[in-house]
Each structure stands twice: as structure tokens, then as C-alpha cells.
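hiii so um. not sure if this is the right channel but i have a protein structure encoded as C-alpha cells and i wanna go backwards to a sequence. like what aa goes where. can anyone help
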């Protein structure tokens, strides 16, 4: 039938499932991509971090380095070091209080949250960047070392208090 079943076709929601041939091509591409990688010395973390610690990309995201996906890309690009060794594999667990973590040679600070209350004037867009070049919240917090998130939005022509923070998870939960 055209709906359901296990032979490809459409899923229950009506969207087509991915053909098995595509899965095989993706798996082969990934095998080819990583087959000729040189043996890499894994970074040494403190004893027990492998089981107890947090995933590196989560720590980086919480430190304001970007979304978890963006932090995974930093790791893939070999831009992240733990205790002096470059990390190239996802899922490494670290302890932010014992392991030294660097991105592009700069130390990533252990959990340090910033919170700002900004009195947004009228005529300012409630976003950190504006592709159309209009004045935005990011224009008021230049020279920042960490990524900031705005909590909620105000209309462009509305003025009022808006919170900015580097605590992405909190900003997401409050919005």
C-alpha cells in the first residue's frame, strides 16, 4: 500500500521515507571519510570523567560558543583542545572544573552566566543581528566575548526592558 509498511514509501504523517539506497550511500560516504584518518592520540581527562562528566559540545554551548550543533562542528574542525590535546571525536566527556578546555587556543571559562536588563528604545529590532542592517540589540552590547541571547521580543516601535543572557537554556525556557 502507499501508506505505512516497511518497504519505503510514505510514513504515517504522509512524508516520504528515505530510500534504503540513500542510507547505504550515506554509510559508505561516512566510512570513506573516516577510514584514512591517522591514529589520533586521545586527550587525557581526569580519572572518571568518561563516565561522570558532561559531553564536551554541551559544555561549549553552555559557555556561549554557539548551539550544540555549532559546537560539534568546532570539534569536527579540530578547533577544540582538552588538556592540550586536540579533540576530533564527538561525545567526549569532560569535567569543567578539572579539565582545561580551549577553542582556537583561547580558554573556555567554566560556567559563568551573565544577565543584562536592557531598556530597548523604540526603533530597535529585538534580535542580536539584523541582516537588513537596522539597529538591533546586538549594537548595544558590542565587544562581547560570549554569545548573548535575548529573552522574548518587543515590537520594533515598542520600548521597554528586555533581558539578555549567555545562558541559552534559560533564555529558551523563559521564551
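sure thing!! here u go:
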Amino acid at each position: 500500500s502507499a501508506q505505512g509498511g516497511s518497504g519505503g514509501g510514505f510514513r504515517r504523517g504522509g512524508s516520504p521515507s528515505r530510500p534504503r539506497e540513500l542510507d547505504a550511500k550515506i554509510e559508505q560516504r561516512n566510512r570513506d571519510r573516516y577510514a584514512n584518518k591517522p591514529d589520533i592520540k586521545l586527550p587525557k581527562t581526569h580519572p572518571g570523567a568518561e563516565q561522570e562528566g558532561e559531553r564536551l559540545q554541551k559544555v561549549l554551548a553552555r559557555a556561549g560558543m554557539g548551539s550544540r550543533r555549532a559546537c560539534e562542528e568546532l570539534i569536527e574542525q579540530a578547533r577544540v583542545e582538552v588538556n592540550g590535546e586536540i579533540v576530533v571525536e564527538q561525545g567526549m566527556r569532560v569535567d569543567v572544573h578539572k579539565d582545561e578546555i580551549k577553542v582556537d587556543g583561547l580558554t573556555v571559562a567554566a560556567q559563568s552566566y551573565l544577565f543584562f536588563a536592557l531598556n530597548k528604545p523604540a526603533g530597535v529590532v529585538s534580535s542580536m543581528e539584523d541582516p537588513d542592517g537596522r539597529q538591533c540589540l546586538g549594537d548595544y552590547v558590542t565587544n562581547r566575548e560570549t554569545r548573548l541571547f535575548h529573552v522574548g521580543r518587543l515590537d520594533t516601535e515598542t520600548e521597554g526592558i528586555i533581558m539578555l543572557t549567555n545562558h541559552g537554556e534559560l533564555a529558551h525556557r523563559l521564551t
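oh and Residues 54-107 form a domain with the Structural Genomics Hypothetical 15.5 Kd Protein In mrcA-pckA Intergenic Region; Chain A fold (CATH 3.10.290.10).
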